Amino acid sequence: MASLDRVKVLVLGDSGVGKSSLVHLLCQNQVLGNPSWTVGCSVDVRIHDYKEGTPEEKTFYIELWDVGGSVGSASSLKSTRAVFYNSVNGIILVHDLTNKKSSQNLYRWSLEALNRDSSPTGVIVSNGDYDREQFAENPVPLLLIGTKFDQIPESKRSEVLTRTAFLSEDFIAEEINLDCTNPRYLAAGTSNAVKLSRFFDKVIEKRYFTRDPSPVRLSFIYCFEDEINFPKLNKCRKPSSLF
Amino acid sequence: MSFLVDSVIMFTSQVLFFGFGWLFFMRQLFKDYEVRQYVVQVVFSVTFAFSCTMFELIIFEILGALSSSSRYFHWKLNLYVILLVLIFVVPFYIGYFVVSNIRLLQRQRLLFACMVWFTFMYFFWKLGDPFPILSPKHGILSIEQLISRVGVIGVTLMALLSGFGAVNCPYTYMSYFLRNVTDGDILALERRLLQTMDMIVSKKKRIAMTRRQMYQRGEDQNKQTGFWGMIKSVTSTQSGSENLSLIQQEVDALEELSRQLFLETVDLQSTKERIEYSKTFQGKYFNFLGYFFSIYCVWKIFMVKFWSQHISFILVGIIIVTSIRGLLITLTKFFYAISSSKSSNVIVLVLAQIMGMYFVSSVLLMRMSMPLEYRSIVTEVLGELQFNFYHRWFDVIFLVSALSSILFLYLAHKQAPEKHMAL
């Protein structure tokens, strides 16, 4: 039973966007009845059939690590959170479609996670500009999920979807927009379910079936006003906002 | 003519304070959140602006700037506005936003908000009864009635915060109290945390796999017919689900443990950072200040009555500036610690309320610190309140708060090293 292989996927986002509800929906196929504030990290497991329907079908465990908190937390909280970012194989970035700030904070979240996960074979140092090309070389697959889709009035939907399209281009990631209290969005056969399945397949492929046997991974060290790891780097300016 | 000039000066300064409050709100408090309800920002800035204007009027009083009639007029105006805001506007909006957060009451938001406000008014009025703050010859809606009650709440708050601050400040900054935390301690705790997470993960894998097998077996079972097929299906699912609930209980216990370990690790990390900070120049400076203030606070605790009557306005000014700055910093820290995107509006409004009441009662208490000749304006404007009562009340609450903070911090300090010994 426990002899299946596993991959670790982080679920990141601001507090209150619905990560715990999302993880519960993905793993238990049920809606979470009493969402409460996540302290520390809560993990759940989903069983995924890689390449379902083909002769190479194999079952894997996908561990979804839901890390709580906000980007503006105290540095003691950030350093403790970093413990959970080790050996991550995929990241799901969650944002609230009704709250623009949560989408903007995703840049900082992704950097916080990718920054810690550095295996020192290749290091790219940037000076704070969000460059799409650098995200393209990112070895960790990303998925963008927007929650509370049902709370957006019909008139504003196209505007919100344009905004998230920009976001998914920046991250070079697929995007799914849903409502965590309605399992219909992820029902089998919907395009969302297909995207999700494709994402998990990509994560598993990167981890177990890459053509490169040695784990050469490029990681990114971005510098921030408050997190200067190397003395040679200068202070950087804040990322320009698209919104 | 001079009245016009004075009014223009006052108005300009009020606009400046309003702008400062607005910027503080946007840049500091709400920098991680999205401002969707601008009314919250406006209410906060207005409260801040009028509170600061009160202090400005005291300074003008002492300096003798502006003509005394226009000062009196602006005092009255300012007081009415701030009372209006603190008693009507802010509590109503707090009730409104709290009600908006509760899903059930969403439909009749306004109605419930009004109900909450009436409850608040009832308790607010009842507050005045046990305290000897008024002489009975005043009417119901006079300014003295309202100010006296606001004053009681504000003075209690001030005394609580000052008492706690007087004890906590030396405790935080003096290196004598900092527990010794090594990197090894933190690494050991992190390792325990990750081990616990691994255990949780392996148990959850078992649960998921068992569920999946049950589901698959259930599908096969649906095809099985006959008497024995039914019995087999019942017994196997029975044992499967009992097993599951047992593992689920273990998982719940482990998750609770992981949360505790996480919080302990955060605690150790913050202690380590405080130790590192204390080694820097800034840290050493605050350490020295900590010793200085602790002596001052001890002196104040024991010699509370002995407060000289002739303090110059420089000291009053310093008290004003440091108390505003200290309050804003404390409010910001508090806000970061407890707010989330749902509750941020409510919390900001509560902070605005506290800030307003704090400043109003500062004015009340400051009267004692001012030389006799300047007290007259405050007495005149605020009416015949029993000021002595407020001073005695402040002293009592200050003492109680300081002593209980000492007890609390002592217990917390003693308990912590024992917890780490057990690792």
TrEMBL record, chain A:
Coiled coil: none annotated. One of its GO terms (molecular function) is GTP binding. One of its GO terms (biological process) is intracellular protein transport. InterPro entries: P-loop_NTPase. It comes from the Eukaryota. Keywords: GTP-binding, Nucleotide-binding. GO terms for cellular component: endomembrane system. Required for KRAS signaling regulation and modulation of cell proliferation. Regulator of KRAS prenylation, and probably prenylation of other small GTPases. Required for lymphocyte development and function. Not required for myeloid cell development. Belongs to the small GTPase superfamily. Rab family. This is Rab-like protein 3. It comes from Oryzias latipes. The lineage of its organism: Eukaryota, Metazoa, Chordata, Craniata, Vertebrata.
From TrEMBL, chain B:
Residues 306-414 form the Abscisic acid G-protein coupled receptor-like domain. Residues 142-207 form the Golgi pH regulator conserved domain. It catalyses: fluoride(in) = fluoride(out); bromide(in) = bromide(out); iodide(out) = iodide(in). The chain crosses the membrane at residues 6-26, 38-59, 79-98, 110-127, 147-169, 288-307, 313-336, 348-370, 390-411. One of its GO terms (cellular component) is membrane. It is a multi-pass membrane protein. Keywords: Membrane, Transmembrane, Transmembrane helix. PANTHER family: G-PROTEIN COUPLED RECEPTOR 89-RELATED, GOLGI PH REGULATOR A-RELATED. Belongs to the Golgi pH regulator (TC 1.A.38) family. This is G protein-coupled receptor 89B. It comes from Oryzias latipes (Japanese rice fish).
